[in-house]
Specification:
alpha/beta; 8-stranded mixed β-sheet; 8 helices; globular; binds NADP nicotinamide-adenine-dinucleotide phosphate
Length: 241
């Protein structure tokens, strides 16, 4: 029986590369994207590499769309084994917004996608995960969400002071902790990961890491025979909360 992975925001960037790397191991990848054309293009590119990929329309800001995506996957595949909550936004970097100048609208939009969207996806996909023999949820977070790192003047990311994005990843990590405890009874592991600063549309050209490196820790956790739960990790191990 093939393993099934569902990845949100998989039409480009880290999500697409996670799909590519998981697909290369023989896992069937369900490509979550909010735009059908972008989802189909990603699926076509993966199929060219011999990967079994299927498009799933999902806008994580729209609960009806999340419910519809879960229903469709349930009808087509019956379950999922791996959920990668990857879809995310960061609008402050381009704008160079300082916390004191942040608009409430930007804060709300960021939480809508990075926190409420990720939560809603988990909520509506747990029934499909419960049908798996080794179910797992991977929340794609960031060291920018680490209160310990961000309050450490010596940390290399200390100056990246984006109130909306950083606090959204802190909140996502809090959801990881709460859900890991709750879903242990269902054998579902829940972890937060940081891919590092990666060259993508979000990370920008100046990022030091390639997308293949960023995807690595997510793929490792997705394919681990015995994943931890309730942790926040990057490729070097534990990240402080
Ligand atoms: P990216 O290239 O901008 O890709 C983001 C993906 O999320 C796109 O597929 C985008 O879809 C999708 N998305 C955004 N809003 C969505 C919504 N409402 N519904 C469904 N999909 C939505 O960014 P990335 O660098 O690959 O980031 C992926 C994840 O890694 C994010 O959670 C990010 O916070 C995290 N991360 C990135 C870095 C980095 O340096 N790049 C570092 C740490 C963590 P569209 O194409 O339709 O916009």
């Amino acid at each position: 029986m093939s393993t099934l992975a569902f990845i949100t925001g998989a039409n480009k960037g880290i999500g697409f590369e996670v799909a590519r790397q998981l697909g290369a191991t023989g896992i069937i990848v369900l490509i979550g994207a909010r735009d059908k054309g972008r989802a189909d293009a990603a699926v076509a590119a993966l199929k060219k590499e011999g990967i079994s990929a299927h498009a799933v329309e999902i806008d994580v800001n729209n609960e009806a769309s999340i419910i519809a995506a879960a229903k469709k996957i349930g009808e087509d595949h019956g379950r999922i084994d791996i959920l990668v909550n990857n879809a995310g936004i960061m609008t402050e970097m381009a704008a160079g917004t300082r916390p004191k100048d942040l608009s409430l609208e930007t804060l709300k939009q960021t939480f809508d996608t990075n926190v409420f969207g990720a939560f809603a996806v988990i909520k509506h996909f747990v029934p499909l995960l419960k049908k798996s023999r080794a179910p797992r949820i991977i929340n794609v977070s960031s060291t920018l969400g680490s209160l310990t790192a961000m309050s450490d003047r010596a940390h290399p990311m200390h100056g990246v002071n984006f109130a909306a994005y950083n606090s959204s990843k802190t909140a996502l990590n809090a959801l990881t902790v709460a859900l890991a405890k709750d879903l242990a009874a269902d054998r579902i592991s829940v972890n937060s990961v940081c891919p590092g600063w990666v060259k993508t549309d979000m990370g920008g050209e100046g990022a030091p890491r390639e997308v293949a490196q960023g995807a690595g820790i997510i793929v490792t956790l997705a394919t681990s025979g015995n994943p931890p739960t309730g942790t926040f990790i990057d490729e070097n191990g534990s990240v402080p909360w």
